[in-house]
Here is the input.
Amino acid sequence: CRISRVCVVRNSDDAILADSSSSAAVCLDEPYRGRVSVNSEFYVEAANPDVIRIIGERKLPAGELPEDAIHVTTNDDEWFPVRRILLAPCLKLTKYVQANRGKYREETHSLSISERSPDAPKDGVHCKIGIDCCTFDRVLLFLIAQMYPDEYKFSLELSEANAMSHAADVLGLQSLTDICDSQASSFASRVRSESYIRFSEVKQRNEHNALLIIIDGMVLDITRWIDEHPGGPSIIPSQALDIDCTCFFEMYHISRQSFLYLKSFYIGELNPADISELSRSDVKA
Here is the structure.
């Protein structure tokens, strides 16, 4: 069997779900985001009705979207129903947010069947954006955190900065552009691009409680992050300092995400003249 839908049952005692202006209402937690609480009901249907028959099943009536929902189709044809208030900061979507109002009263806000996600309903306000569904989902999380900072937190990963910056340009979302620019500025300010880093400096800084490691000629500063290392804070200082630890890194880290993290720690390139001084991790190990 598979879960066909999660329905949040309204409860006047539920501080989050009771108020129609709450984050749950704005974010369409019922039923499209699937917030699970003690009041949730799970409706199950058989993946193959010819093999499994569910006795006494209850059918869930089709949910109704609020009238102010905008049906957004991403460039990979996924459908997102989003309330207008959430998209208000996206300046390039203003004509959809203000559809049927003021100067936009006479405009048609629909898409042809070929442009619309096959999951999207026929009626309502439709728009298509040049952003993939995963990135747009992250944008929505950013918008929710902006609207409800006490309930939601948003952290921009360096690996997604380029995609989010592009999304901010497509949507005209200045607050997201500011965060992406800040991330890029932070990277530019800490990277030594005008000169190489000498091996003697790496060793000296490591002797004074810094943690600089060298991977394939790249110098990475992991000092502030070491306590968060999934493998524990002791293995890197005991095995990977003052050597070329490329082999160690490749041996223990096989996921693509691990390699994307390197950019967060990169501070420059080791002087090529010092490479001959390095012991390789496969030799030292």
